[in-house]
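Design job #97: recover the sequence.
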């Protein structure tokens, strides 16, 4: 009898434990998140402009909302770039938040306020950054690269054209977001991205009056490609960055911004994002934890072409490592973009000394848009250069210079274009063009999805190019350096400029990581010499 009673009570206790466990799990799953908004800065009126987003999260989705306004007037416009430290009121409430949304510009807080703010990041919590948060502080230049995975180097050009990154077109942040759009203000120079970042929206800027935008899909660009939205994995903590968000251009009211914002909020908290985005379901959207984290679709590529090194040729990339290359981007010397020295971000590594940051996969090196270019450590004068390259296939909505855009810069200065322009009339921007200078004599491109071969001869300022065995340029004299090539007027120790010939006499080979994951293989060089050169 006692054994029966003991067995009964054991089962009863076990049942109560199971019920309690399920109750706790249910309570935890049904608990609505707490979000803290941190706003501050007069330039973009963030204190007022984020209130509708906070209200929607509270009213439509049941969030507990803490709204903190940094009321320090004029702090972001201080003429000395060094305003007196101020107190962020209610900063202690930040510690109660599950998620932070931050839109602020050039702040300077006293130590206790700053400690409360930084506690959110140091504890590994998710956050969403809007626009000027990439230059949130006057003095701390490392904040955005470290905790949000991107930089602020300057605000460059007046207008912008944006496109979802086709490689990550199914990323939760961009579900339901238009594939392309035009915006009213130029992009921030956000490169180079930090390891752990995934660019989901790219942009080009141009210098046009606001009523003279060249429109969606135009090739009239006046800037390199920059990410304007990206995801960042900070040691497991999800962060989302959207550097759009100007009330002057009206994009805070645009569907593309709203979709990006609400998708980012729920993705950063680990919730499943509907295929057409959070807003597609309106108030009926249910917060369900993500079952399987997003992974990009794997792309199969054909086998790398066989190549046997010939006499007098040197291998620059053998499919195994990038030991002969290093990092370069347009924000380091010899920079071709004027930088905003009030807030030029830094770190988390010294990019001037950084090794090449491209990936090596399946015997190829893969361009990483948003992470910079690669240049050879050694500098060359006259030479023959050969390489194989692979342009991935893209959907039809990817057009013009968004399709397979990369390039190789002779001596770092003159770009021979790489682009998916198969079947199109040759232009000064198509595959094999001397970019924005001379169209190929023949259209010799192969379709995307096939390996192609380019051979370049550079001798005393004359360029000859063979594309897939067809001579497309023959002894063409180069002139001014290409758009965003190494500027001749910059002092770069290894480069000299002959103003009469218009030729940079020595420089690196530069492979461009523009907006597409173009692959390179079998990169080799043979030095050429004039009769009176000393070959030693």
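Job complete. Output follows.
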């Amino acid at each position: 009898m006692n054994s029966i009673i003991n067995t009964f009570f054991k089962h009863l206790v076990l049942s109560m434990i199971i019920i309690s466990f399920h109750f706790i799990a249910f309570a935890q799953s049904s608990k609505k998140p707490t979000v803290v908004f941190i706003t501050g800065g007069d330039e973009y009126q963030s204190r007022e402009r984020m209130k509708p987003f906070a209200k929607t999260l509270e009213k439509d989705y049941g969030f507990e909302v803490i709204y903190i306004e940094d009321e320090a007037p004029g702090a972001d416009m201080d003429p000395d770039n060094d305003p007196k430290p101020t107190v962020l009121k209610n900063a202690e409430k930040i510690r109660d938040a599950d998620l932070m949304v931050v839109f602020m510009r050039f702040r300077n807080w006293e130590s206790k306020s700053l400690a409360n703010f930084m506690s959110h990041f140091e504890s590994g919590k998710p956050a969403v950054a809007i626009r000027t948060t990439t230059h949130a502080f006057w003095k701390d230049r490392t904040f955005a690269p470290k905790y949000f995975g991107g930089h602020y180097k300057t605000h460059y050009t007046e207008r912008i054209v944006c496109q979802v990154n086709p490689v990550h077109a199914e990323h939760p942040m961009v579900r339901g977001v238009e594939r392309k759009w035009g915006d009213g203000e130029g992009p921030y120079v956000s490169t180079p991205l930090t390891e752990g970042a995934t660019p989901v929206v790219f942009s080009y800027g141009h210098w046009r009056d606001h009523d003279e935008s060249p429109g969606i899909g135009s090739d009239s660009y006046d800037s390199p490609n920059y990410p304007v939205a990206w995801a960042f994995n900070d040691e497991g903590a999800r962060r989302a960055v959207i550097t759009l968000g100007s009330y002057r251009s009206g994009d805070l009211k645009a569907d593309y911004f709203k979709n990006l914002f609400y998708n980012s909020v729920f993705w950063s908290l680990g919730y499943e994002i509907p295929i057409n985005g959070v807003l597609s379901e309106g108030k009926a959207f249910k917060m369900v934890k993500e079952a399987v984290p997003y992974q990009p679709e794997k792309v199969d590529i054909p086998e790398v072409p066989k190549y046997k090194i010939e006499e007098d040729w040197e291998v620059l990339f053998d499919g195994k490592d990038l030991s002969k290359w290093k990092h370069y981007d347009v924000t380091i010397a010899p920079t071709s973009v004027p930088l905003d020295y009030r807030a030029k971000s830094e770190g988390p590594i010294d990019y001037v000394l950084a090794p090449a940051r491209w990936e090596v996969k399946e015997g190829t090196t893969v361009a990483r848009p948003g992470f910079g270019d690669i240049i050879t450590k050694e500098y060359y004068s006259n030479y023959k250069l050969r390489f194989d390259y692979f342009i991935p296939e893209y959907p039809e909505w990817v057009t013009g210079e968004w399709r397979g855009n990369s390039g190789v810069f002779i001596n770092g200065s003159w770009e021979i274009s790489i682009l998916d322009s198969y079947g199109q009339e040759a232009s000064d921007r198509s595959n094999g063009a001397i970019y924005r200078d001379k169209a190929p004599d023949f259209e010799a491109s192969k379709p995307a999805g096939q390996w192609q071969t380019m051979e370049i001869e550079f001798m005393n300022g004359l360029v000859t190019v063979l594309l897939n065995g067809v001579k497309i340029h023959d002894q063409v004299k180069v002139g001014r350096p290409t758009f965003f090539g190494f500027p001749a007027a910059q002092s770069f120790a290894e480069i000299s400029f002959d103003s009469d010939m218009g030729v940079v006499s020595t420089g690196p080979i530069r492979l461009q990581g523009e907006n597409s994951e173009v692959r390179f293989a079998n990169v080799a060089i043979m030095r050429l010499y004039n009769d009176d050169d000393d070959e030693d």
